[in-house]
Each structure stands twice: as structure tokens, then as C-alpha cells.
């Protein structure tokens, strides 16, 4: 094969192989590099001669950039946004993905690099996860093994539940997860037809304002780190009760959309008597109340999981997760009712 002269900064590089990666690099023939035109010689030899397929650094960067920003572009308008990838948010995502048309764009925004929230461990950093019946049915649906103790079941390690749920949720083609991404505000638009529980409706939550979490946590150090937006007719906020941004929408709704006192005040709302702090632990009251109070509390905004306890001032339940699963389920059903109305 006649050598292919490639002009370079310091003279010519002659290569007789047009698929020679160095030649392609020097020629800057990026398309050829990107589509792997160069030779793929691999050797899975663990005796000192292991060979990976050759690659150009640009291929790695472009493979990530293309997918991530295509997703961001595509999900700028979503059908459902779920804020928080903890046990409630992930259960909700699973239930929605399973029961809505595959074209439904379900977008999960998770502030942590690692999704999963508080469900990687049981209580007090102990590993077993306790789930009270009848929420154990969801474990059977997922195929998570457990020990039956009569009125409750035990998953040997909470990470077994969380990792299984995560893998199932991310396997749905219409579910997109943006982790290390925080919701740092809500989009609230006037909507004269919106009727809600508070006298301040006539507005609708119509989307979320996002930023990379590290940016959201550092607004005080830099100015103008402007965020991104994702619009959707239904937002499900399952941001838990602790962590740097826990109970995000409960606090935001209290401070911005309804003019209530700052969250954490014990002053009760004049109409609904709600407080914005979680009450003391009581497993038997807490789990059923969180489930029963999971609903659209503001036009376009559904609370799920411990954020319900924060918003309603309910008891907390400590390290038992059946309420999170059932709340996630109920939030999914509430969201479908809105979408189908
Ligand atoms: O696990 P969490 O914190 O929240 P839930 O409601 O899914 O489950 C709560 C459960 O783990 C308990 O707290 C148990 C039952 N204990 C109760 C008790 O009495 O102590 O997941 C929330 C997720 C986390 O991964 C956060 O990183 C994320 O939400 N998050 C956010 N993501 C995006 N934007 C935000 N602003 C934001 N805030 C929190």
C-alpha cells in the first residue's frame, strides 16, 4: 500500500497503513477516529500480553459529551420530574415507568453523586433493612430476597434493595437520571385554572430549576452561576428530610409560593394548621400517615416519602422503609391521574 504522507508541524509522518491511529490523529480525521476506523486488536491475555482496542482520547470524551448533553437537550421538556433518588423517589419512578406508555419521559434529578438517598443502610448505620407488611410485595416484584418475620420482613442488606431497585429503574429506556444535579428552585407560573389546597393557587408548579450540585452548594462563593431548567406538568418531590437540601420543595413551597412562615417555624398555617417541621418518631402513626398524605399538595406538585412528613408535620418513623415504598407507589398513581386527566 503506498505510504500516506501526513503533513505534521515537524515535517511529514509517513504511514503505509491508512488506518494507523497515529496517522489518523495527526491527520485530525476525527470522524474516522470516532467511528473506530482504526484497527481493533484485542488480546485478553493475563500473562503479560493483555491488549485493549486502541482508542483516541477524543472518542471517550465525545461518547460521554454526546450522550449527556443529548439527554439534557431531550429532557428540557419532560413529562414527569422526580426530585430525589431515594427509596421513595426510585419506587415512584419504577411504578411510573411500569405503568405509563414507554414514550413518557420520566426524569430523575438527584443531588448526590450516588443515588439511593438514605436507603443504602438500615437504621443507625446498621445494614439490614426492615419493611413492614404489606410493603414486602414490592420486594417480590423486584425479586429482592428477604426473611419473613411475620408482621415484617428483613432484607439482609439495605444496599441489596437499593441497588436492585436502581438497576431496574435505570433499565427502563424512558427513565433518565441526572445525578450530582440539584434542584435549586421551582418554576411556578400563573395558572388561573389551577385549583389547589391553598388559597394561593392560581399558580402552578411547571418545572424545576437545576444546577450541578457543587454549583448549587457554592452560590455564595461565585456570582451568576446560572442554572438550567426542566419543564414538566408533574413534579414529584421526594427529597427526604435531611442532607444539605432535604425537604427541598416543602421548604421552598413554604417560603416562596404560599408566603407561609419560614420552614421550621412552629407557627401553624392559619387555614390548614400545617407546620413545617417533622414531629417526633412514632412508627405506627408515621408510615401510614406518610402514605395517606402523599398527594398533590399544590397544583402540579406531589410530595412523596419523608418530604410528606416535613410538609405535613407528621411523625417520623425511623429505620423502617415500607412507608417510603408505599408513598412512592401512591405518588406514581397520583401523577398518572394528573397526566390522564
Ligand atoms: O432517602 P431520602 O433521604 O428520602 P426518602 O423520602 O426517599 O426516604 C427517606 C428514608 O431514607 C428515611 O429517612 C427513613 C425512612 N427514616 C426516617 C426517619 O424517621 O428518620 O432520599 C432523598 C434524596 C437524596 O438522595 C438526596 O440527595 C436527594 O433526595 N435530594 C435532592 N436531589 C435533587 N435536588 C434537591 N434539591 C435534593 N434534595 C435532596
From TrEMBL:
Transmembrane listed as a keyword: no
Pfam assignment, any one: Thi4
GO BP annotations, alphabetical order: thiamine biosynthetic process
Endoplasmic reticulum among keywords: no
Record keywords, A-Z: Iron, Metal-binding, NAD, Thiamine biosynthesis, Transferase
GO molecular function: metal ion binding; transferase activity
NCBIfam families: sulfide-dependent adenosine diphosphate thiazole synthase (TIGR00292)
Protein's recorded name: Uncharacterized protein
Source organism per UniProt: Clathrus columnatus
Amino acid at each position: 500500500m503506498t505510504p500516506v504522507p501526513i503533513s505534521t508541524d515537524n515535517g511529514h509522518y509517513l504511514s503505509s497503513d491508512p488506518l494507523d491511529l497515529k496517522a489518523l490523529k495527526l491527520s485530525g480525521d476525527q470522524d474516522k477516529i470516532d467511528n473506530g476506523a482504526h484497527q481493533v486488536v484485542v488480546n485478553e491475555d493475563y500473562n503479560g500480553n493483555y491488549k485493549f482496542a486502541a482508542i483516541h482520547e477524543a472518542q471517550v470524551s465525545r461518547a460521554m459529551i454526546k450522550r449527556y448533553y443529548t439527554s439534557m437537550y431531550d429532557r428540557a421538556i419532560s413529562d414527569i420530574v422526580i426530585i430525589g433518588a431515594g427509596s421513595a423517589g426510585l419506587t415512584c419512578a419504577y411504578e411510573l415507568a411500569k405503568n405509563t406508555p414507554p414514550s413518557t419521559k420520566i426524569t430523575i434529578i438527584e443531588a448526590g453523586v450516588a443515588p439511593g438517598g438514605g436507603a443504602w443502610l438500615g437504621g443507625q448505620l446498621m445494614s439490614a433493612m426492615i419493611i413492614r407488611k404489606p410493603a414486602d410485595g414490592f420486594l417480590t416484584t423486584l425479586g429482592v430476597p428477604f426473611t419473613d418475620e411475620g408482621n415484617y420482613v428483613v432484607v439482609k442488606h439495605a444496599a441489596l434493595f437499593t441497588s436492585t431497585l436502581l438497576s431496574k429503574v435505570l433499565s427502563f429506556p424512558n427513565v433518565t437520571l441526572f445525578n450530582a444535579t440539584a434542584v435549586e428552585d421551582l418554576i411556578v407560573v400563573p395558572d388561573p385554572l389551577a385549583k389547589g389546597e391553598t388559597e394561593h393557587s392560581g399558580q402552578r408548579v411547571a418545572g424545576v430549576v437545576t444546577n450541578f450540585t457543587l454549583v448549587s452548594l457554592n452560590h455564595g462563593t461565585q456570582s451568576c452561576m446560572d442554572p438550567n431548567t426542566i419543564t414538566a406538568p408533574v413534579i414529584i418531590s421526594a427529597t427526604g428530610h435531611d442532607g444539605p437540601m432535604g425537604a427541598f420543595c416543602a421548604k421552598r413551597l413554604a417560603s416562596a409560593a404560599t408566603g407561609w412562615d419560614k420552614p421550621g417555624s412552629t407557627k401553624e398555617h392559619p387555614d390548614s394548621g400545617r407546620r413545617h417541621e417533622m414531629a417526633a418518631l412514632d412508627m405506627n402513626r408515621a408510615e401510614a400517615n406518610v402514605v395517606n398524605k402523599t398527594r398533590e399538595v399544590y397544583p402540579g406538585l406531589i410530595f412523596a416519602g419523608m418530604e410528606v412528613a416535613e410538609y405535613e408535620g407528621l411523625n417520623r418513623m425511623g429505620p423502617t422503609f415500607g412507608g417510603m415504598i408505599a408513598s412512592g407507589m401512591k405518588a406514581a398513581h397520583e401523577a398518572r391521574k394528573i397526566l390522564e386527566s
